Predict the structure.
Amino acid sequence: NQTTLPFTPEHGYLDAVLAKFKIPKSSQVLVFSKTSFQHDRISPATPRALYFNDDVYIGFIPGSPLMEISTADPELGGVFYSLDQHAEAKPQFTRQDQCLDCHASARSMGVPGHLLRSLQTHENGEPDLSNGSSSVNHRTPIEDRWGGWYVTGKNGNQLHRGNLIGKAAFEKQEKTPNYLGNISDLSQFFDDSHYPAKSSDIVALLVLEHQVHMHNFIARLHYETEQKLAAYGHINYVTNIAESFLKYLLFTEEAPMKNSIQGDSTFTKDFARLGPF
């Protein structure tokens, strides 16, 4: 099949790719920590935007010469591509195996996969690893999530680490809890006119965190099954990981939420509308 990808000066091929893969713009979440191979282009003033649906992830930085695309293959795990952000007659998706240098480790359950981390940053977005770094999924306490991320929406009285840039911001959080929580306007941090959406929706972040680890879990379960079949001719020895996956799928160990959480975009409706039904 062939398709055309319209190019725009503002977003390059982003709008066309989102439409092609049926990824809602409202799924936009923004990360300002320098934790991507494009770290030189990422900062609190130029955060990296992520967009996603059930099985495709898109990474976009305004002004970057390339866009990142990855898929969650149930057999292979994460598969990574890039797309040059220059107007061309026949734009090509290019496989990027070097991404596996970081995206195939214990953090992704030992299979090619995706990673989400929460960490404190310096004022320029450089990770401050002296304060630790944690992988994030739905088991992570809310107060430990979203360091290095922008967060919009309502989180009630619950503390989180989003929107905090630099040591001084974290120190102020201790004196004035939640002073950068429950916000919907990110223009105080950067020029948001360069992005398709204005939000970094808290509900989209919650869904993304659950889904990324689940995709890694599916791939891990496939790898384990193939190995046990090859070695023993049966899958009796995958019972433990299968039970762990089922518990994860059903949120049985989800971190408790003290207050209700509400997004500030149309993501909740848009994501549900995509199905499957």
Remarks:
- The mean pLDDT is 93.
- The chain is about 25% helix and 15% strand.
- The first strand starts at residue 29 and ends at 31.
- Residues 134 and 239 are 28 Å apart (CA to CA).
